Amino acid sequence: MGFQHFTTCFLLALCILSQNLAKGTLGFACNWGTITTHPLPPQIIVKLMKDNGINKVKLFEAEPMALKALGNSGIQVMVGIPNDLLDSIASNVNAAIAWVDQNVSTFISKNGVDIRYVAVGNEAFLKTYNGRFVQSTFPAIKNIQAALIKAGLGRQVKVTTPLNADVYQSDSGLPSGGNFRPDIQNQMMSIIKFLNQNNGPLTFNIYPFLSLDADPNFPKEFAFFDGSAAPVVDGSITYTNVFDANFDTLISALEKNGFGSMNVIIGEVGWPTDGTSNANIKSAQRFNQGLIDRIVKKQGTPKRPTPPEIYMFALLDEDAKSIDPGPFERHWGIFNFDGSMKYPLNLGGGKSLVGAKGVKYLPKQWCVIQSQANVMDPSFAQSMSKACTYADCTSLAPGSSCSGLDTKGNASYAFNMYYQTFDQRKDACQFNGLSVITNIDPSPSQSSCHFEIMIDIGKHENKSTSFAAPKTGFEYIMFMLVSSFTFTLSLFI
Fold first, then answer.
1. What is the DSSP letter of 84?
2. Residue-range domains of the chain with CATH
3. Is there a catalytic annotation at residue 268?
4. CA-to-CA distance for 269 and 255, rounded, in angstroms?
5. Res 333: pLDDT
6. 314 preceded by a cis bond (ω within 30 of 0)
7. Whether residue 123 lies in the annotated active site
8. In whole angstroms, what is the distance from residue 281 CA to residue 264 CA?
9. Which of 270, 275, 403, 471 has the fewest Cβ atoms within 10 angstroms?
10. DSSP string, 88-112
11. What dihedral angle (degrees, nearest 10) is formed by the CA atoms of 63, 69, 75, 80?
């Protein structure tokens, strides 16, 4: 009787598990960036991932509180090594051993973090880096591999390096003509051979959005999975979207160099929602729903019918990221900075995207321009520049969600972002007599423009330990100065 009861329970458990798998509630992966002024507590973020069936996550660096929160969560982790550490790790194996001990071994043994990959560098071969990291990336990979073996983690944790799609090209313009850039061909082959020998995957970031945004002549519909653009015919293969064509260009490059079966991971792919006219809610929902549909259906590309592991970019918006590539850089999240939903997504099997729970906010008050303020006041431009230097005004960029505001509306948005960034301090709403605090939400009706209320970091820290977010005005200034603000004045006057 006991054995029959056990068998019944076991079969029931298998049925429940198989139903969950069939519904697509497992198997999503995402990037979790932490460059933000008001971070959600990591425990809330981990719960958000689990609620949405995300069981794999990529971190850009070994952020201690994020890793601790991921402990015993059932979520597999890829932890990154920033580019600025590549030189030291490449030149000294002891530096690699120390990094692995501190950021991998410790979190696995003491916190139960399921670390599966170490990502050495991030897009280190980008052309815009002018070769800065070309010579150090491969030695760093080798030293991290040696450090993992020394720590007894050589089988459990694999090494990879996330690369941008600009490391390969096609002289013919077709996927079949794919090969690696001549200037880095030798480095690429060294890395590929080494990773292949150690069962490590190649990781590549593919961005259809960037293809579209950078080229006014790019066929827009070709950027989406359900597009109606004219297909690209490459021999016997027909391509209906740029993602497939880009990925298969990489596969052709691998085939030409004798590594056609090399394991490949898509480390980043997504669509931003603000910062430029092509970055909007409608397009992001369309692209990401198409991407999720492919993941649920386990759909690959013409050259690789078996789909790669895909990490969606990104989980949350990051309001302190550099905007050198463009104002859209702070708006890649599937969720807003506070974990609230931007748009619905069908996750398959009747599951829908759900937002974060238990988030605490600052009071419902905003800093706006005085109704009688004169925009011709000599201090107006100075106040605007100050606000957008130290707070995120990218939603005011041309074509963005708040670009339709008038001059005073721009000022109110900028003043409020500064006020919220500095935790609604009274002195953060003092712009040469031009501003006032209000309890009436200034967000325009019938518009996607939203005047934020920030997360109350203090309330969350009373409950649990959060990220080490900057508290003082000086620290906030240093935190935000990493961003570019060259577009600021042109927005307002």
1. G
2. 21-352 (3.20.20.80), 366-492 (no CATH)
3. yes
4. 23
5. 98
6. yes
7. yes
8. 29
9. 471
10. HHHH-HHHHHHHHIIIIIHHHHHH-
11. 0
Q: Round to whole Å and give the CA distance between 222 and 126.
A: 24
The alpha carbon of residue 362 and the mean position of all alpha carbons in its chain are separated, in whole angstroms, by 25
Question: Which pLDDT score, from 0 to 100, does residue 379 have?
Answer: 94
| DSSP secondary structure, 60-75, as one string | SS--HHHHHHHTTSS-
Q: Give pTM, 2 decimals.
A: 0.90
| CA distances to 277, 384, 394, 395, 425 from 410, in Å | 17, 9, 11, 10, 21
8 Å CB contact between 129 and 166: no
Write the single-letter amino acid at 209. F
Q: Where are the alpha helices (DSSP H) in 351-401?
A: 378-390
- Residue keyed to tokens 């209000």: 438
Q: Give the per-residue pLDDT at 446.
A: 85
- Rama region for 350: left / alpha / beta (φ>0; ψ in -120 to 50; rest): left
CA 388, 393, 395: angle at the middle one, nearest 5? 165
Alpha carbon 108 to its chain's center: 24
CB atoms within 10 A of CB 290: 17
Residue 192 near residue 202, CB atoms below 8 Å: yes
Question: Catalytic one among 61, 123, 309, 318?
Answer: 123
Through-space distance between the first and last CA atoms of the chain, rounded to whole angstroms: 82
- Could you say which residues of the chain have pLDDT below 70? 1-26, 462-493
HSE-up of residue 371 (Cα within 13 Å, Cβ side): 2
Per DSSP, the three-state class of 188 is helix
For 448-482, the DSSP string reads: S------B-HHHHHHHS-------SHHHHHHHHTT
CA 491 – CA 355 distance, rounded (Å): 32
**pLDDT for the residue 67:** 98
Measured on CA atoms in the order 8, 54, 347, 354, is the torsion positive or negative? positive
Q: Which two tokens stand for residue 289?
A: 């729903």
Question: Residue 368: beta bridge partners?
Answer: 436
Q: Which of 61, 268, 309, 452 is catalytic?
A: 268
As a whole number of angstroms, the distance between CA 199 and CA 183 comes to 26
Instruction: Name the DSSP class of 221.
Output: G
Distance CA 262, CA 424 (A): 52
The single-letter DSSP state of residue 462 is: H
Q: What is the DSSP letter of 160?
A: E
- Residue 313: count of CB within 10 angstroms of its CB: 24
User: What's the pLDDT score for residue 491?
Assistant: 58
What tokens were used for 3?
């054995």
